[in-house]
Structure formats: C-alpha cells, structure tokens
Specification:
With about 260 residues, this protein is α/β, with parallel strands linked by helices. Helices cover about 40% and strands about 25% of the residues. It is built from ten helices and eleven strands. Helix 1 crosses helix 7 (about 185-200) and helix 4 (about 105-120) crosses helix 10 (about 235-255). The relative contact order is 0.22.
Length: about 260
C-alpha cells in the first residue's frame, strides 16, 4: 500500500474554502492524512517532519529545510483583513507594551516590522501563552489573530488592522500563509492538490453554506471571505512576500547586533 501524504491546514475560518475543496476530492483524500492546527503549530509540524505539506505562515518558510511553495493559492489580503489585529485601550503612540499572539509568528513579526519601519515607535514586545488577551489594558496592547478577533471587535477603544497598516506602508497586499511541501512530491499530486484548493475557492458560497449548517456561526463568513481574504498567489503577492521576508531578515539582523 502506498504511504499516505500527511497534510496540516490552519483551523481558522479563512481556510473554509480550501478545506471544502480538499475534502470534496475523494481521490485526493484517499492519498492524504489531513489534520487541523493553529498557524504556528502547522509550521512546527512541517519543520519536524511530522507532516509533508502544511499551510505555513510565511515568516517560517526560510527556516524549514527543503521548503517548496506549491500551488497558486495562499491566505492573503488586500488592505483590511479583520482577523490580524492590534487591540488597545490607548492610541498607538501611548502604547508601552505589545503582547504577541502565541498562535502566529507571521503576525508577530509583521507588528515588529511596522513598529520599526512605519510607525517608528520602540515598543516592548512580550511573548505570551493562552489567556494573554485578558491582560490587554491600559498601555499594554495585544496582537490577536484568527477567529478570536471577531469576538473582540467591540472590546477595545483602539483597533489597528495590521494588514491595512501594511498596505498603507507599502501599497501592497499581504500574504499570511502559503502551502509548503518539505519533501519531493510528484507534479501530478501537486497539480491535483492545487486543483482541489481551487475547486473550493470556485465554490466558495457552497463551502460557506456547508460550514454554516455544520457550525451555526454568528460570523458573516460570506462577507469576510469575499471582502477581506484574497487567495490568488499572483505577482503582487509574490512581490509583497519577498519584501516582507527582506524586512523580517533586517529585523533579525538588527536585533542580533
């Protein structure tokens, strides 16, 4: 029996079309083991070799051995994304400390890149664990990503959408995650996998309807996925990815000096 390919995908709402497409391809599903995790965990699984393909936060890609971006689709945005937020009780210039979401490393680095290159503010950044959102108050702000951000939209006086801030800074879209393989895969399989992802995107409304029936979510998923998530890994997004990784590298070099 042929060994199955292990795949990890992000468990957030922005992957609903991807998962719909993959899970509706019975032949593809017969070839893979699929698991859902939060973004930083998806990267860890690929890095450790526990999975062969993963939807990986882009800042992780340079540190993954033999990483290859596959397919023509990503998790991206053009301006506001609504689910990568900096929440605060005070305006940006009064923030002293930013608590960093442990579930994502790309958003954490994005906040640091914006602080250094766009906002020009020297914050204190703190790593976190579960429960950190409850500590956001006063001059302590917090980066919050994913579906949890929807629940907090009315909880803080000041809200900064990091994707929108990136767009103001660069005029470019932002890429949060790409499908990445860490072992050689046949062109046939990679094409089949990308076709399944595209099928989900082409049938986005069916994916949303299927999800809403199963989960009974109060979130307007149709608006979120159509207005704030952009999945074509086109040339502008490739340019944005390259720019962000360059700024991220500069950030690490500076911090090591």
């Amino acid at each position: 029996m042929k060994e199955k390919i292990n795949v990890a995908a992000v468990s957030y709402l922005n992957t609903v079309p991807f998962l719909y497409g993959i899970q509706n391809d019975k032949d593809l599903m017969s070839q893979i083991n699929l698991r859902l995790e939060y973004p930083s965990r998806c990267a860890d699984l690929l890095r450790s070799g526990e999975v062969d393909i993963s939807l990986v936060p882009i800042v992780e890609i340079p540190d993954i051995p033999n990483a290859e971006i596959i397919g023509e689709h990503c998790i991206g945005s053009e301006g506001k994304v609504k689910t990568v937020m900096l929440y605060s009780d005070c305006p940006l210039e009064e923030i002293k400390t930013i608590a960093l979401d442990y579930q994502s490393r790309t958003s954490v680095v994005l906040a640091k890149v914006l602080a250094k290159n766009y906002w020009n503010i020297d914050f204190e950044f703190e790593e976190t664990t579960e429960g950190y959102i409850d500590t956001i108050s006063g001059t302590r702000a917090g980066v919050v990503i994913g579906d949890r951000a929807f629940d907090l939209k009315d909880s803080f006086s000041y809200q900064y959408d990091l994707s929108e801030e990136w767009y103001k800074f660069t005029g470019l879209p932002f890429v949060f995650a790409c499908w990445v393989a860490s072992k050689p895969l046949s062109d046939e399989f990679k094409q089949q996998f990308d076709r399944a992802v595209k099928y989900g995107l082409d049938h986005k409304n069916m994916a949303i309807e299927f999800f809403d029936k199963k989960e009974n979510s109060s979130i307007n998923l149709k608006r979120y996925l159509n207005e704030h998530i952009s999945c074509d890994f086109d040339q502008r997004k490739k340019t944005a990815l390259k720019k962000f990784l360059s700024l991220s590298k500069d950030l690490l070099v500076t911090s090591d000096q």
